[in-house]
Amino acid sequence: xxxxxxxxxxxxxxxxxxxxxxxxxxxxxxxxxxxxxxxxxxxxxxxxxxxxxxxxxxxxxxxxxxxxxxxxxxxxxxxxxxxxxxxxxxxxxxxxxxxxxxxxxxxxxxxxxxxxxxxxxxxxxxxxxxxxxxxxxxxxxxxxxxxxxxxxxxxxxxxxxxxxxxxxxxxxxxxxxxxxxxxxxxxxxxxxxxxxxxxxxxxxxxxxxxxxxxxxxxxxxxxxxxxxxxxxxxxxxxxxxxxxxxxxxxxxxxxxxxxxxxxxxxxxxxxxxxxxxxxxxxxxxxxxxxxxxxxxxxxxxxxxxxxxxxxxxxxxxxxxxxxxxxxxxxxxxxxxxxxxxxxxxxxxxxxxxxxxxxxxxxxxxxxxxxxxxxxxxxxxxxxxxxxxxxxxxxxxxxxxxxxxxxxxxxxxxxxxxxxxxxxxxxxxxxxxxxxxxxxxxxxxxxxxxxxxxxxxxxxxxxxxxxxxxxxxxxxxxxxxxxxxxxxxxxxxxxxxxxxxxxxxxxxxxxxxxxxxxxxxxxxxxxxxxxxxxxxxxxxxxxxxxxxxxxxxxxxxxxxxxxxxxxxxxxxxxxxxxxxxxxxxxxxxxxxxxxxxxxxxxxxxx
Length: 605
Ligand code: PLP
Description:
Its cofactor is pyridoxal 5'-phosphate. There is one protein chain. By secondary structure, the chain is of the alpha/beta class. The chain is built from 17 helices and 11 strands. The protein has helices spanning 3-22, 37-41, 53-64, 86-98, 109-125, 148-170, 176-182, 193-202, 219-231, 254-263, 301-304, 319-323, 356-390, 414-427, 454-472, 479-527, 547-596, and strands at residues 141-145, 183-188, 205-209, 235-242, 267-271, 296-300, 312-316, 395-402, 405-410, 433-437, 440-446. The chain has a 7-stranded mixed sheet, sandwiched between helices. Bound molecules: pyridoxal-5'-phosphate (PLP). Pyridoxal-5'-phosphate binds at residues 80, 147-149, 192, 194, 242, 244-246, 271, 273-274, 300, 312.
């Protein structure tokens, strides 16, 4: 591809992305494909010869898009938002275009320096204590990692190294690996599974402690655990507290946990993957109290700050503690600018993309006020959804709206809730996921789309209500809801009906086609003075001079018989629809009488 083609296709690609975003509502939020669908559509091997752009793009639309879950879709309410915005897409495009790798200051000075600047900008916007920022009076600073999991792992490794180094200083004869076997970390049982994974990789013991009824890990619980462990000869070295848990966006109490960590010389990492970004709004900073006790803190701008994956920002109060755990210094990476930050010592990989560009584009394009407005709007919409849940007594709110997340369940068994969620997701009308709280299955509803609106929330709630009627086997109270269910059912039935004529009519049509051809051919043969008692099988072997006749007959057949077949098809569809409607009416009558006799919600699944 030369630069002219690049410009042309680049423009087309930008158009394609913008049209995709504008027309998301035309697509089903969740793909209706089965595992292995793409293998059937794409060749086994890469093409030997170059293919043209149009063919590639056609496959994108025809083969790839049908298997995509549309995370930016207004009906996407699963997980957390996957931050995205036009400025961030363009910033990322520029990063790809420049294609530089900024592992050290010398490898591309602007990569390092812009990252230093934007992490400070963002840190200040969050009101992070100065100790976390790059500055003359600070030992701290920030770095962009790929994911929250990576931030948590890196903090585990840094804490492990720090504790072992410190213990070895106190007792130089101590065995490093014996010490390692005693190190113990703590987190809430509601912490993201990346904490468990990090402990696995770091090969250290992790205790998952029970949060209180508000799903908040309290200082007293951590204290008790640490005391028990110390009494058993173990060495507490790390606590991971979460601000904004994945299941229900609850907040551990870092104001209580922080002082304990300080007293015990334990690394406190605060994972604010989702909720961390909300602290740009002063009124949402309550749970941030105590952040000055933390050794490290991370948030994903690629969740709640309109910046596309990957862009997890991690701050530490002591750069040295982090870099000493990662520092290796081969000669080919050394340079003479020792005063500069070398991000290769701040993480696991050496090579790194110019990720600060997209965050810089976002911060500049929206400004802090624009981002605050975005966060506040998601909070408002979550409250709106919460109100809907509260007003329907068949549902239970399992946690209050927290930022853009609400969790709820239908009163009843886990199986019932699983059925509700599965049927909604399968319909492609909404996408949500489940989680567990207090040993019960809950459904998470998260506001995700950048420009989510009241209508989107109302639509989601109506859909949930409709499907709840289906799984409960109840009749909706309002006429509107009844109509929507009916529409839904009719659509399903029509689909069934559309398949039906093909199953039943196709063999019939083949018979008719054959019989009428035989009949017409016989007529022709009579006209030609041939024997009228020709066996139908012999029609296949029409003498050569009659081939033309046969073709003519086939044409006539198509003119005459085809409209007839269409009529038959339509008649049989009508017939079937009528039968289905009768069936439905009688089902409704039966359900109605069940309702009036007092049993309101009979689970049918
Ligand atoms: N921490 C929390 C609280 C999360 O909610 C998540 C993901 O949703 C993670 C960590 C893991 O994030 P990542 O995918 O960036 O590793």
